[in-house]
Amino acid sequence: MNVLITVASKHGATAEIGEALGAHLHERGLDVTVVPPEAVDGVTSYNAVIIGSAVYAGHWRQEALEFARREAAVLRSRPVWLFSSGPLGSPSVPAGDPVDVADVMAHTGAREHRVFAGELERDRLGFGERAIVGMVRAPYGDFRDWRSIGDWADAIASQLLQPAAAG
Q1: CATH number at residue 49
Q2: Alpha-carbon Rg for the chain in angstroms
Q3: What is the C-alpha to C-alpha distance for residues 158 and 77, in angstroms, rounded to an integer?
Q4: For a 10 Å CB count at each end of the chain, is N or C smaller?
Q5: How many domains does the chain fold into?
Q6: Which of 27-31, 44-48, 135-139, 142-146 has the lowest mean pLDDT?
Q7: SS3 of the chain: helix, strand, coil, percent, to 5
Q8: Strands 119-120 and 141-142, how do they pair?
Q9: If you average pLDDT over residues 59-80, what whole number do you get?
Q10: CB neighbour list of residue 29: distance below 8 Å, 6 or more residues apart
């Protein structure tokens, strides 16, 4: 079974989540391709798709939104999962789903959406980004929960490997 994981990531932290998901699915015996949305030339050759996006100011990245709209008709005919990365700290701020997720779920018929905490490293940010981080008092650090990410990948693999899902 071929699985596409496409992730819109600005500084690489969300892409690393996509890579981790791909590694877990591959360990479970699935064929996995992990690429950014702008590199996807159609989804007809994939049996399932996971779309992820970094979240900035409560919104998904434009590349992920454009991919979901462009491929919506085919995506609705396949199992699709969504994830967002961006909340920081403990408790995570901001809480809740990004603004765009309801529309992406409707366009793609996604089975589920997960929000994973993100990473914010000062040395990866430009001057303007550091100024915004300072104004909103966002904490620096890596808040990603790799166990939770792996558990979600395992749950997806279990769904895809069920005999009914293969047909």
Answers
A1: 3.40.50.360
A2: 16
A3: 19
A4: C
A5: 1
A6: 135-139
A7: 45, 25, 35
A8: antiparallel
A9: 96
A10: 157, 161
Domain limits for position 150 = 2-166
**Cα 101–Cα 12–Cα 61 angle in degrees, nearest 5:** 30
The pair phi, psi for residue 55, each rounded to 5°, is: -115, 125
**What are 104's two structure tokens?**
């992406």
Distance CA 150, CA 75 (A): 23
Residue 136 has pLDDT above 70, yes or no: no
Which residue carries 């701020």 as its tokens? 93
At residue 133 the predicted structure's pLDDT band, cuts being 50, 70 and 90, is low
Query: Residue 91: is the preceding peptide bond cis (ω within 30°)?
Result: yes
- Closest to 85 (Cα-Cα) out of 51, 39, 34: 51
Q: Is the pLDDT of residue 79 over 90?
A: yes
pTM of the model: 0.84
